[in-house]
TrEMBL record:
<feature type="transmembrane region" description="Helical">
    <location>
        <begin position="213"/>
        <end position="237"/>
    </location>
</feature>
<feature type="transmembrane region" description="Helical">
    <location>
        <begin position="249"/>
        <end position="269"/>
    </location>
</feature>
<feature type="region of interest" description="Disordered">
    <location>
        <begin position="96"/>
        <end position="137"/>
    </location>
</feature>
<feature type="compositionally biased region" description="Basic residues">
    <location>
        <begin position="110"/>
        <end position="122"/>
    </location>
</feature>
<keyword id="KW-0012">Acyltransferase</keyword>
<comment type="similarity">
    <text>Belongs to the DHHC palmitoyltransferase family. PFA5 subfamily.</text>
</comment>
<feature type="transmembrane region" description="Helical">
    <location>
        <begin position="55"/>
        <end position="81"/>
    </location>
</feature>
<dbReference type="InterPro" id="IPR039859">
    <property type="entry name" value="PFA4/ZDH16/20/ERF2-like"/>
</dbReference>
<feature type="compositionally biased region" description="Basic and acidic residues">
    <location>
        <begin position="123"/>
        <end position="137"/>
    </location>
</feature>
<dbReference type="InterPro" id="IPR001594">
    <property type="entry name" value="Palmitoyltrfase_DHHC"/>
</dbReference>
<keyword id="KW-0449">Lipoprotein</keyword>
<dbReference type="GO" id="GO:0005794">
    <property type="term" value="C:Golgi apparatus"/>
</dbReference>
<feature type="compositionally biased region" description="Basic and acidic residues">
    <location>
        <begin position="96"/>
        <end position="109"/>
    </location>
</feature>
<dbReference type="GO" id="GO:0019706">
    <property type="term" value="F:protein-cysteine S-palmitoyltransferase activity"/>
</dbReference>
<dbReference type="GO" id="GO:0005783">
    <property type="term" value="C:endoplasmic reticulum"/>
</dbReference>
<keyword id="KW-0812">Transmembrane</keyword>
<keyword id="KW-1133">Transmembrane helix</keyword>
């Protein structure tokens, strides 16, 4: 059995190989429909067919075929471009950058001596290396590390996905915090924003930057293949009835178009389902049991009374505050921070199977991927709205589940349609309470 590394290399190699194979299939089908079918059989029938020309049918088939081919090719090129050049990678951490630099050096013979020298230096002082690794992850020593800067992009928002202690999710391979819904792609060795799946058919990873074009591509390919299948099957049946023979080009065309029509119809249905539920293929794997842990901002006006443990308003949910205390570590504080620039979050949990990103209706969910106008739905123009991260509220819009969590915890401001906050209205406290 192949090792994971070998399997990874095979997957990447296959993903690079398949696009030219697909191109070959399209060129072959286009030739089969244009020359043997439309020109040699319908427009100017070869003498062996012994038929009168059917110019109208030939012209109509040629026109429809190429009209259907254009959107398929354009969306594929758009998809391929985004998969290769705008894949939606998260930046990597300092340590990962250093490791990659070392790997690059190893590939350059002229730098081999310097590399060996650095390796020796590390060997001579193993404690220093360990300390350095720890510092990068925990931000110790009061130095503003890259991870501190990354943290800021989380705690300046209103809601983010977190661990049990309130810190954002961490990728130890990339050495950085993972934004909501990011997933580490094994094949590419990088965290990808809202990664959907690794797709060898398009040469890489389908993510928030390319999922819309992926849906458009499978829909247009399904329509194109279905048309090619109907046309080649119809005239194959006709010629068999009249002459008892079959055209080999049309037969291959039937096989190819049936295969890809069936495949893309399945992909269309599953992709639309993901869009309708606002989940990714990866999130869908444990959709029915997943429990999301969310850090939800506590409004400023509630802070003082929440930290008073004698008060009837004292919450039953754990809380964390940012920014982390510089003199200890980047562990979030669990005490009432001084007034001013403080960001306090309640750590709340969804029920198993709830999707906090579900915006409430299938149409609103699909709009997050496809856009807000008919042109955006049909044409490969503009990025998906979910790939716009300019909002200060969260990395991705949250839906009614988060609204309900806020209401239950008494975190909604008065007059916002919320149930009035009552003492101890928060959800039951999970294990690992970080409040002191
Ligand atoms: Zn990663």
């Amino acid at each position: 059995m192949a090792s994971p590394a070998a399997q990874k290399r095979v997957n990447v190699a296959v993903s690079r190989l398949i696009p030219p194979v697909l191109l070959g299939a399209v060129v072959y089908a286009s030739y089969a429909v244009t020359k043997p079918l439309c020109i040699d059989y319908l427009l100017h029938p070869l003498p062996s067919y012994n038929r009168v020309p059917r110019v109208g049918a030939g012209a109509a088939i040629l026109t429809i075929y190429y009209v259907l081919l254009i959107p398929m090719v354009v969306t594929y090129l758009h998809l391929y471009y985004h998969v290769l050049w705008r894949p939606g990678y998260l930046p990597v951490g300092d340590q990962k950058l250093r490791d990659e630099q070392n790997d690059d050096d190893e590939k350059r013979p002229e730098k081999s001596r310097r590399r060996r020298h650095r390796k020796k230096a590390r060997k001579a002082d193993p404690e220093k290396t360990v300390q350095s690794d720890t510092d990068v992850e925990r931000g110790a020593g009061g130095v503003v590390s890259q991870s501190d800067l990354q943290l800021e992009s989380f705690y300046t928002q209103d809601v983010f996905v977190c661990q049990q202690d309130g810190r954002p999710l961490w990728c130890s391979t990339c050495d950085q915090y993972k934004t909501d819904r990011a997933h580490h792609c094994r094949e590419l060795g990088r965290c990808v924003r809202k990664m959907d799946h690794f797709c060898p058919w398009v040469g890489g990873v389908v993510s928030e930057t390319s999922f819309k074009f992926f849906i458009q591509f499978v829909v247009y390919t399904c329509i194109y293949c279905t048309f090619a299948l109907i046309v080649s099957a119809y005239f194959t049946a006709e010629i068999r009835r009249n002459t008892g023979a079959a055209n080999p080009y049309w037969c291959v065309c039937i096989g190819l178009s049936a295969l890809f029509a069936f495949f893309t119809a399945g992909m269309t249905l599953s992709s639309l389902q993901m869009g309708i539920f606002n989940i990714t293929t990866i999130e869908n794997l444990n959709r029915r049991t997943a429990v999301w842990t969310l850090a939800i901002r506590v409004p400023e006006y509630m802070l003082d009374r929440l930290w008073d443990t004698e008060s009837p308003w004292a919450p039953t949910f754990p809380m964390v505050s940012y920014p982390p205390e510089a003199h200890t570590s980047n562990q979030p504080q669990a005490t009432n921070p001084p007034a001013g620039e403080r960001h306090v979050f309640a750590i709340l949990h969804t029920q198993p199977g709830e999707n906090p990103f579900d915006l409430g209706t299938p149409f609103k969910n699909l709009q997050q991927v496809m856009g807000h106008s008919i042109a955006e739905w049909l044409l490969p123009i503009k990025q998906s709205p979910c790939a716009d991260h300019s909002s200060m509220e969260s990395h991705y819009p949250f839906g009614p589940v988060v609204t309900r969590l806020k209401q239950e915890a008494g975190l909604m401001p008065p007059g916002d349609g919320a149930v009035p906050p009552t003492p101890h209205s928060g959800r039951s406290q999970p294990e690992g309470n970080t409040q002191t």
